[in-house]
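2024-03-11 09:14:02 DEBUG pipeline.ingest accepted 1 chain
2024-03-11 09:14:02 DEBUG pipeline.ingest length=278
2024-03-11 09:14:03 DEBUG pipeline.predict start
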Amino acid sequence: MPIFRKNINRPKPASYELLKNNVDYGTRSIEQFPRPYSCQLTPHRELDFSERTKRAAQAVVPFLLGPCKAIFIGDVASGKTSLVNRFCHETFHDHYADSIGLDFEVERFQILKQSYSLQIWDTKGHEQFQCIAQSYYRNTNIIVVVFDMTRPESLINGKRWLKEALRLKSGPVLKFLVGTKKDLLNNQSLCDVELEAIKMAYEINAEYWPVSARTGENVTDFFRRLTALAFDHSVQRAMDTNDTLLQTTGNSLLNLYFLRKEKKKQKKFLKCFNCTIN
């Protein structure tokens, strides 16, 4: 059975406090499309929500979207848990006890005044428990490959983690490459690491972000960008599905209409034909 780490003393997510105290969403509210870390380091060229998404969000009746599932993968001690805790709980600890299985968080957003939930699955990078995480790769919307910028081997290993995650993923998925512990590098070391990270981001078609969970640098911007992209893509996929359904249903109804009309003609003809014979 999969093992979840649960700490009863863990602080409640920011979204919990917001809902409990009935206050505004603050940083969890997204009205403007967040920019990438660099427009040259992303395969997603969108600088604004699509027109279809904007029109859908202006509907009088709020629409419901399923939650977005984002999995964070990478070597053990690469900074996944610190990154997630910095965003969800605004906390940072120098040391986390090694754990196995997964951590799970849910953050709620208001995007263009529509409700949207982000499920964050923090997978533990232990080789011997990799088979446990495989079952949680299914139905994934976002894959975040996390590497430690102070350990170049964790960047190389990121390809292996991504390959494993994609092995059980058939549909479209948004990919991000995130380098952690940016604050521990000097300018020259940062440049050297980023050159390799940028090469890999292009290879795997992912958007690149360097972050620091210790200082909070780029963390909130990254999560807002990730969620906004997922929301935009989710709305468009939902509209495509509904359009296809409507078109199929419309054609079926149209065919049924003509079929019934043709049957009425046949009945009328047969009735007249029988009258003539008699």
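2024-03-11 09:14:41 DEBUG pipeline.report The beta strands are 29-30, 68-73, 102-111, 114-123, 142-148, 174-180, 207-210.
2024-03-11 09:14:41 DEBUG pipeline.predict end
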